[in-house]
Design goal:
alpha/beta, binds flavin mononucleotide, five-stranded parallel beta sheet, 18% strand, globular
């Protein structure tokens, strides 16, 4: 079994999402002997945004791509390969200004690829048979009913677009100590349940 562990916080030791994804992967590895973990640190090893050359290359059929175009897509191909090889994705997501951080958006723009993760003919997702766990940290407390949360609805939409609909969400956040402790305890319970599942 393969797990892709993706962090997107620019913070290091202070990052809550990093700590939680690390704990989750540790718990998951204990219940899944032989697990292969691929780590991608989009928060520190910055992924570039797409360019005009990238778009032209991505929409040129593979057999017709020039050497330069193949080079332009090299990182994207690696990121797509990592995604397609994974059975489970664990994504650490700090909420930034009600949405996802630019670091994570850059990863998404590189992996949502016509002909590789979605079909531009049928508009169906090609990255099927995977599950995703989103670890979302925020300064405030949000639920699936919060109209100002653009993190989870957006990630559910874009993951579904490429074929990933089995998505679990773990949220941690709150302005006061009580909310913080409560959401952390709930996160730990959900993480244990998810890690124990086959
Ligand atoms: C630039 C920036 C924007 C933020 N925007 C929000 C926000 O819109 N809503 C919120 O509840 N918290 C917001 N926060 C707080 C972070 O979501 C919170 O600190 C979270 O723990 C960050 O994840 P990390 O600990 O993994 O870095 C923001 C923080 C930063 C630095």
């Amino acid at each position: 079994m393969n797990l892709l562990h993706l962090d997107s916080s620019p913070r290091a030791e202070r990052s809550q999402s990093r700590k939680l994804t690390r704990d989750f992967v540790e718990a998951f590895a204990l219940t899944h002997p032989g697990l292969t973990v691929t780590y991608r640190d989009a928060g520190h090893d910055l992924i570039p945004g797409v360019t005009e050359e990238w778009i032209a290359a991505a929409f040129t059929p593979e057999a017709n791509r020039s050497k330069d175009q193949r080079e332009v897509l090299r990182l994207s191909d690696t990121l797509v390969d990592e995604l397609l090889a994974a059975d489970t994705l664990v994504i650490g997501v700090p909420m930034y200004n009600f949405g996802i951080p630019a670091q994570l958006k850059a990863w998404i723009d590189q992996v949502v690829r016509a002909g590789r993760t979605f079909s531009s003919e049928t508009m169906e997702g090609l990255a099927n048979g995977k599950s995703a766990v989103l670890v979302v940290t925020a300064g405030g407390e949000y639920t699936d009913q919060s109209p100002s949360d653009f993190v989870v609805p957006y990630l559910r939409q874009v993951l579904a677009f490429i074929g990933i609909t089995d998505v679990s969400v773990i949220r941690v956040g709150g302005h006061d100590q009580e909310a913080m402790i409560r959401t952390l305890e709930s996160a730990r319970r959900t993480m244990a349940t998810l890690a124990a599942a086959a």
